[in-house]
C-alpha cells in the first residue's frame, strides 16, 4: 500500500507526466481546466458556504461532535507573502486516496451518486471554490500534506489540479501553534493564504456567519 507521499508522486508522474514522458492528454486537460476556471470565476459563489456544505458532506467518527473552526492569522506560515492566512479545521475522518484523486480531476467528485443520501454542494465547484480567495490552497489530512496552484506550473503547465507535496512551509508545528498547543489538531486542516484583494471580503463573510446556519445542517454541531 502506498504512503500518502508515494500516492502524490504516483499521481504527478502517471496522471500529469511530471518527471516522466510527454503527457498527450495535456491539451485536453488544459481545455477542461480553462472551462473550470471560467465556471468558477463567473459564478456568484459564496466560498464560505461551499466550505460549510463540504464539511456537512464529510463522514465523522462516532465519538466526535462534528465541528468546523475558522482561524485567521497574519503569520505568513506558507511563506507565500500572503497578508493573512485562513485556516479551516474539521474533525472529519479525513482525506483518503479517492478524495485526493477527485481533487486532481475536473468535474469529478466523490459526492457523485450520493445526492439521495443528503449530500449538498455546488456541482463541479466544491472544494475548488477556495481558489476564489487563495491562489495556493493547502491540505493537511491523514498524512497528506499537499498544495494546489491556481497558475499553471512547469513542467505540466496545468493549474488547479496538480498536487505538490509540502516539504517545509507550513509545518505541523506551525499549525499546532496557531490552533493551540494544548489541543490536538483536527484530522483535516485546509490552509488558505489569502489574495490581498480578498482579505476584507473573507473577514466580512466570517463576521456575518450566524449561528442559525446550524439549524440547516444535519451533521455539523459547532461552527
Q: Care to describe what's here?
A:
The protein has 223 residues and is an alpha+beta fold. It has one domain: Heat Shock Protein 90 (2-Layer Sandwich), CATH 3.30.565. Helix content is 29%, strand content 13%. The protein is built from 6 helices and 6 strands. It has helices at 4-15, 26-42, 47-57, 97-103, 172-179, 199-207, and strands at residues 68-73, 85-90, 138-141, 144-147, 164-165, 188-193. It has a 6-stranded antiparallel β-sheet, covered by helices on one side. Strand 3 (138-141) and strand 4 form a beta hairpin. The N and C termini lie far apart (35 Å). Mean pLDDT is 82; it is low at 112-124.
Number of domains: 1
- The mean pLDDT is 82
CATH architecture assignment name: 2-Layer Sandwich
Q: What's the tally of helices?
A: 6
Strand order in the sheet with the most strands: 1-2-6-3-4-5
- How much of the sequence is in beta strands? 5-15%
Overall shape: it is globular
Based on DSSP secondary structure assignment, what is the total number of beta strands? 6
Oligomer: single chain
- Indicate the percent of residues in helices: 25-40%
* Protein structure class: alpha+beta
Distance between the termini: 35 Å
Low-confidence stretches: 112-124
Gyration radius from CA atoms, angstroms: 17 Å
